[in-house]
Protein: Endoglucanase
Organism: Colocasia esculenta
Amino acid sequence: MASIKFLFLASVLSFFFFSSFYHVHGHPNYGDALAKSILFFQGQRSGKLPPDQKITWRSNSGLTDGSVANVDLTGGYYDAGDNVKFNFPMAFTTTMLSWSVIEYGKRMGKQVDRARVAIRWGADYLLKAATTTPGTLYVGVGDPNTDHKCWERPEDMDTPRTVYAVSAAHPGSDVAAETAAALAAASLVFRTVDKAYAKRLLAAARLVMDFAMKYQGKYSDFLGSSVCPFYCSYSGYKFFVAGQDELLWGASWLYRATNNNAYLSYLQSLGANDDTDIFSWDNKYAGARVLLSRRVVVEGVKSLDPFRVQAETFMCKILPNTPSSSTQYTAGGLIYKMSQANLQYVTSISFLLSTYAKYMTSSNHTFNCGNLLVTSRALRSLAKKQVDYILGENPQKMSYMVGYGTRYPQRIHHRGSSLPSLASHRQRIGCQEGFQYYSSSNPNPNVLTGAVVGGPDQYDSYSDDRTDHSKSEPATYINAPLVGSLAYLVGSYGS
């Protein structure tokens, strides 16, 4: 009886603790935000655009990508405001879009078909990268160092479209395992709507994951300045250290897609060490642990319980004022992790909060952070507050999603958006000529609808300055996890 009274009291205290911190003032139009967050990916497309392209100021680009290596590497996405195709963040983007549909597709309504289109655009390219040349995984197109010295439309780019790859001789188990995760996750998305395509994706995922496990090493050790400091693998593979995040992440997705116990054995061999309080394109520990925890919390698979413990340790590090909290919050209530593109961490962490809460709800599961009882409601409330902040409930009273609401960033750090479109300016704009638009104080002429920028600083301040890429640059990996969080909120609160 005493234990029951304690749990009841802890639950009541937990409710008042979290509800006081996460007082909600209203619900933004989540349906509109969801549609726009998916539409954004059309603005990042590389390759030949389809007839139903909705962001019409974009045109075909990168039509000869891969030709310098005598392969076809057209398609895929530009990662952010530049014209390079980096497979590491592109694969993470594809994984998170897929996970969003897997968890919340039934809440998306008609947007689920558009989300699948966005996933297929990335997955088609990753299939080419993984299967075109046996023993080789292509991991990028475009010389980032020369690209970043230019400010030109993707339709005009004339910088080298260098092709980068990893192989047995020059391994990259980090980017390979992330690619495997993307292909496996996408296979689950298409399993019921396009079985043949899903089988192709899963076969490629198996192949690339085998490569990642067999030939281990950090891809940036080989490719150097071709990927660093842009997407250097900081928390990726480390020799002789168990628990490498991409290997854990990739094997987790292969286990989810195949139920093959060989992947389970591999996961257990990696262990569940290395506590973290972040989740991003470069650090997958928390994501893998939440994904694996589904088997424990929802299905009762006890052999994976160490990953559940680690997932909940992560949550305790995120929640405010818990004994182990290591997360900074702005005065306006925003999770603040890094000065560079902070909203990428906000959207990714919010997705994990919502998704773990979903698993908890299915089995009435709770856990403790010290003596504080944590419920699914507490996690959902924090995730909702983060999304609401992005959509305008913040001290600046502005949306950080372009095209959403009445006040949003006008001068984003994005070449195609900031330069006149081909429709309005048919003449080529050269590498250096474009910097007059980069330096201009005028709003961007083309609206990149749905783009979420890097976001405000630790003081909730945002200057809307194109030249401050750390705050004003959008990226595919900022939007991808937000799609899932918005779909959850649409299902819970409507539009």
User: Anything to note?
Assistant: Residues 410 and 443 are 5 Å apart (CA to CA).
